[in-house]
Amino acid sequence: MNQLHRGDLLLLLALVVPLWAGGHFAPIIWERDEVIRWLTQASGVLALTCMLLAGILSTRLPRGDRLFGGLNILWTRHHALGAASLLLAIVHVWFVAASGLGHSVTSAVQRLFPGPDHWPIVAGWLALVVLVIVLAPTFKFFGEPGYARWKRLHVFSGLALLLGIVHAWPLAQATWPWWVLGLLALSAYLWRKLISPRIGRHTYRVEGLDRLTPTMVELCLRPEGKPLDYQPAQFVYLTPLDPGLANGQGEEHPFTLASAPGEEHLRIGIKALGDGSRALQGIATGSTVQVEGPYGTFLQGHDRKRPAVWLGAGVGITPFVSVVRDLAHEGRSAAPPVHLFQLADRREAAAYHDELERLADTIEDLDLTLHLRERDGLLSADFLRQHCADFASAEFWICGPEVVDRYVRGLLHAEGVPNSRIHSEAFHLL
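The structure corresponding to this sequence follows.
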């Protein structure tokens, strides 16, 4: 379980305020009708609050993710609030019906569907319908969602926010929380969809494209204006503008930076994992891209007293490449000692390995080991121990596919390594 961060405390406070302002903490009289009325109001208030907070978190301001310990954790909170808003809205509808069923079925139907003249109720139903449309892919009702389709559906989330406020406004006992949260949520939506693409991004030009493996390239980008200010191992959202791309033109996707902050160019390793990233393998040199960020706290702010073990699988090696390049560029040691394990299926799939070997020889306290599945089998504790005798006492950083993350965590847990010493970076539906 992730630890609580400052952002989580702000979310908890924001969840409580609308309940407190509307006097919805507990029923005054513990009778059936009173309790159902309270549950109806409280579930409705919490549903709208969760929806608005999910909207606020979509702002995605660079460095704002640090309040939550990284953008991947912030997005986990965003997804949880979105899911909670839908479930609470359904519970709210159920309690509205229950309040009428105490009298008759006709009364329950009348409360749910009072007619088109009762526009707040109509707005509430429409908000629920839009929520289902927006969130259904997240629940995987229709299979694994496509990234582009999933992003396009989120354009309608602003409509759900508006309809939810229209539903609650005339029924609320205190409207000021909806003023505050509503304006923040709508401002976040406008920033993300309209303003940020115009003023919140850096423009770069593709100066080079280096083939690293049969399925992975590194983009070399030259800044057209003010360059990005970032730390090693952070990531950005990249929007290619090359009109000749087969897929993904104008779509934003998250990619980890492979360059060091002191370099003249921005370098990004991209593996062909989907239609958009596959198309980027052939992006035209000289075309422009937009970069938004930086994001992420991976390899930042953790326990620096213990030796570290880094495990990078596939394209997950890129954040470690960024840090190694930074150490070499600055002429610093890796103290406390670091052991980097690069995990790949076969030698030709081990992107950056030749460079990492060369740089590791120049950096004090940095060791590098290549694990190839076709040669060494599945990664095991014995393999880790063979190359890093006291690995179980180290601090661990993992970056790679979700299946690798789960496998390595299970391996480390079996060796007695607690979750508090295991950190990972993941881009699932970012």
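The first strand starts at residue 202 and ends at 213.
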